[in-house]
Amino acid sequence: MTSRLALRFGVLPLGATLLAATLAAVPTATVASPAASSARSGVAVTNGCLSSVPETKGGAPVKICYSIFKPASATSAKRVPMVIHSHGWGGSRTTDPADFASLTRAGYGVLSFDQRGFGASGGKAHVENPDFEGQDVRALVRLVSRLRWVQQDAPGDPRLGAIGGSYGGGYQFLGAFESLRLKGKPVFDALAPEITWHDVSQSLAPEGVVRTAWALALSAAALPTQALPERVYKALVEGAATGTWPDGSIPGTEDLVTFFAKNGPKHHVDAGRRLDIPVLLGQGTTDSLFPLQQGLANWQRAITPRARKQSIFVGYNGGHVLPAVLPQGVDVTSDPCSRRLGGGDFRALTVKFFDKVLQRKPSSLGGFGKIHLATPDNTCTTVSSVAPTTTYDVGTVATTEGPAGAPIPYAVAEGPIRIAGSSYLTGKVTALGVNNRAFYGLAVGTSPLDAHLVQNNVLPLNERLPVSGLARRVTLPSVAIDVPAGQTLYLLVSPVSDTFVTMGSRTPGAVVIDDTVVHLPVVGR
Fold it and tell me: Which CATH architecture has domain 33-382?
């Protein structure tokens, strides 16, 4: 499994960003030993572990291990904010102070920790479950609140930011939402999550169709340390083999729907909770595991309107990226929006964001309250809303017969046209088989022969039973694209996808949509 996310602050996003759980046990430092300070930076490093909740009732406490980086400027008389960091799926904490130099030089302490089931920490990975990882995060926050050189806004309330990508973004939402649930306010004062999820089940199996490549990759990444509970391995393999997200409805199968029920912002949003703190959201436009719409869902639903005015959304070309061969996509890695906003990469933008919202330094940083999306041509489009604004009649679209047909592009609009945001199509679906499926995305080219996916993603339509002329709305992948004059924007329809390999129709037959209308977020109209 590969990822094209550049390593930022030591983030290793090797798969899903799944971090949640809340800590009930009072942490006790079980292995705390100061390491040698960095001679060049003056950063003091302390490695240790604390005790957190056991895996089973009455079982042994689980150790959660960490490294603390204290900048030379921090003293009990001159306290500094703390930034918590954690790793991606299959990774481990960062122990080299050089990886956090931009933060420690700017006057931040850093705590990097091994999530449950990974690195030196014990236990199993419950994918950011409040009852396990949520407890771990709360224990780490209590540890930070006792450090005499960390700035405290109130007893037990340190001035606190958070960073990390993929699984290292999941713990951020988990910790903030669990504090909001239990105490009425998030203990974090600002977050900077990257390429993380809003809804795990919709990420791994949109419309119940399993992203086979990622289900198997996540299992493989956890195998070296046996990080996942055994039943989750079994369930992911079941999903990849059957093409159906396991929900326990078939006797003898596992239930991932229940396992992931509380594991992400969607759970808290559904319970009526919203975060009212500044958030710098980074999401990959070419990410095929936690695609752009997962980040946009967090922007739109997980934080309050007031918080959005103090927050920034950045979409960059990158994230969890697999080769997009069928249908054909693009190969691009770039971050023009971070460069335009902060003069560098997302890491530099994060430091400037924290300087403004955590240290409250005077700043010329702009872009707050806006969504900034990279295009495949390395330009940055800024919008206030990603909702569709314009409709285009396409007529009848259909997949080819059988499970191995070629993608078919249907012309939507001639360039020049700019779109940025979330699209969908409506129409009347006819699919006469059982579990008929097709995959839909937006493409661009000079003709149908060279049309390629805008930013690599497709989403499925899954008709479990035969239908004839049934009105449907099909979500299309969120994208940003400038279609120049002489090129055409297409709706690409395919019976197969290499991200959803083997997940095509379970019975032969075409999926036909009549009276198709594509709803696009056109910029400038």
Answer: 3-Layer(aba) Sandwich (3.40)
Pairing relationship of beta strands 371-374 and 312-316 according to DSSP bridges: parallel
Give the model confidence (pLDDT) of 454-490 as tens digits: 999 999 999 999 999 999 999 999 999 999 999 999 9
pLDDT band for 220, please (50, 70, 90 cuts): confident
Q: Is the pTM of this model over 0.90?
A: yes
Closest CA to 170 of 148, 143, 142, 191: 191
Please tell me what DSSP assigns to residue 352.
H
Question: Identity (one letter) of the amino acid at 511?
Answer: V
Q: Going by C-beta distance under 8 Å and a sequence separation of 6 or more, which residues neighbour residue 475?
A: 206, 293, 422, 424, 459
**CA dist 383 to 271, 313, 371, 418, 427, Å?**
29, 10, 5, 11, 28
Confidence of residue 28 (pLDDT cuts 50, 70, 90): very low
Contacts of 244 (CB under 8 A, 6+ apart): 208, 209, 210
C-alpha torsion angle, residues 335, 341, 346, 349 (rounded to 10)? 170
Structure tokens at 291: 């695609």
pLDDT at 22 over 80: no
Find, among 64, 33, 69, the residue nearest to 50 by Cα. Answer: 64
At residue 37 the predicted structure's pLDDT band, cuts being 50, 70 and 90, is very low
Residue 268: which residues within 8 A CB-CB, separation 6 or more?
173, 177, 180, 181, 302
- 3-state class (DSSP) for residue 255: strand
| Nearest C-alpha neighbor of 275 from the set 178, 133, 202, 357 | 178
288: tokens are: 């095929």
Burial of 426 (0-12, 13-18, 19+ CB in 10 A): middle
What does the pLDDT read at residue 363?
93
Q: And the tokens for 62?
A: 């689980």
CATH class for the region spanning 390-520: mainly beta
Q: Are 521 and 480 spatial neighbours (Cβ–Cβ below 8 Å)?
A: no
Q: Does pLDDT of 400 surpass 70?
A: yes
**Could you tell me the two tokens for 115?**
């999530």
The domains of the chain are located at 33-382, 390-520
- The position carrying tokens 């309330």 is 157
**Are 116 and 133 contacting, i.e. CB atoms less than 8 angstroms apart?**
yes
Tell me the pLDDT tens digit for each residue of 160-214: 999 999 999 999 999 999 999 999 999 999 999 999 999 999 999 999 999 998 9
Who contacts 307 (Cβ-Cβ below 8 Å, separation ≥6)?
274, 275, 276, 277, 278, 279
Give the span between the Cα atoms of 478 and 457, in whole angstroms: 9
